[in-house]
Request: fold
Amino acid sequence: MTAPAELEDLLRRLAPRVLGTLVRRRGDLDACEDAVQEALLAAALQWPEAGIPDHPVSWLLTVAGRCLTDAWRSDAARRRRETALAPPDEPVSPGPDEDSAVHRDDTLTLLFLCCHPALPPSAQLALTLRAVGGLSTRQIARALLVPDATMSQRISRAKQRVKASGSEFRMPPEHERDDRLRVVLHVFYLIFNEGYAASSGPDLLRTELTGEAIRLARELHRLLPGDGEVTGLLALMLLTEARRAARTGPGGTLVPLAEQDRRLWDREHIAEGTALLTTALSTAPIGPYQLQAAIAAVHSEAACADDTDWPQILLLYRLLEGVWPNPVVTLNHAVAVAMVRGPRAGLDHLAGLESDKAMADRHRLHAVRAHLLEMAGEHDAARAAYELAARRATGIPEQRYLVAQAARLSAGLGTAHAQRRR
Amino acid sequence: MKYLILIYSNPRSWEHPMFLHQHDDLSPEEREAATKELAALLTEIAESGELVDSAALADPINTRTVRVRDDAMTATDGPFLETKEHLAGYFVVDCDGIQRATELAARFPDARYSAVEVRPIMDMAGMEM
Reply:
């Protein structure tokens, strides 16, 4: 007997290899995906009793191939009157075991296909979780908090769109590969954030998305060990995940970085993330994920918030804004500016964002402004900014946090900083 | 992100199907075209996996407004707000941001005759501050 958790883990690791190989041979992502799900189900039912076969990939490929042929036959029977079709003659069952180089290419090709640029991000994310992550539609629906029917539609539409785009199952040409890899990394990043933004507790399945994103990033890192950004993203996830236990208080309240109990940080994650990052920085060209990981690593080195090496963080944000300019980076950069050169300089750095319509709608801008105004001693303005941020927030834990900050200032309880020291 | 799309309407009659109620200034051809447009939109967002939930509301005449004061309940017939435009139905969509939700809202024919409101639904998200 194999423990259910172990078996599930094994099946999910094998799923993309089986699917990749099948799609390479038979072409139709949609049909192959259904067939692989059936084969996984058969394995989940049979292996606990019969034991894991000697060549699990071959076993799954054979069963999936048979499902595919059955489906093809019943489809063909329906269409026979209209068209004469030749039966598929390419053998589906592989040799004793698949060459690992083939596995590698197939999984990677499958990832590129799931993160196809013709798909909107939400569809890329769902298809990746299903086809590469090996999660069931039901699990994905529950993790992303939508009805099963909605998720089922989203995944099947995604598969249709990939098909309609005429993409073949092969690696993107060399000159496109970098851009396509960025899309894959972005999808992993979104999966991670979906899980990280969810507070602990009832949303357990949702928080497991961080673990899933890390698992996917590990797999990609195994396939592309020399890519600095893949390594950087894995490091960033590990360094961020390390803070999970400290970032929420009782009842799911948010605890900002500066006030977290650092004894709760996961040292193993930090050590692994830092080691990965060090290798990436010394061997590969620098990129946005490595820089974000480097910032997270500097935070994790400080024993307490006051020990944080802000000049180093400021330098890293300057580099990050250079290679990846966007409003969220500017926002965080402003905080680093404030920590090094004072709140006024930080507020000046925000000025450019105030006129950005898209950004003005976001609660984070107002939250950061509130924080910097408070640092500058302008408590009334800070309170007003916290109140505005709270009204703008659409996440309940964020809103609660911001309301509490505004209330603290109204009550004249002093700064969060002073409270922390007490 | 999930959004609630609220369809406001000021119809002559609350005849369903769907949300395109009878507007005085609509010719039968225009009405038919708009109905088709709406049907196509609904099919599209169901198939794309964006539609989460939807409902059409009955004529406001059927509304009951309930109040409890000092533990005593009163229920009156008719809507809470005295307005010309009423909520006629709603859609919950799960899509890639406010821009996409706004795009969808603009494609409801009611947006041309009265108005359609888009409101983010609160979630349990909490990014690190």
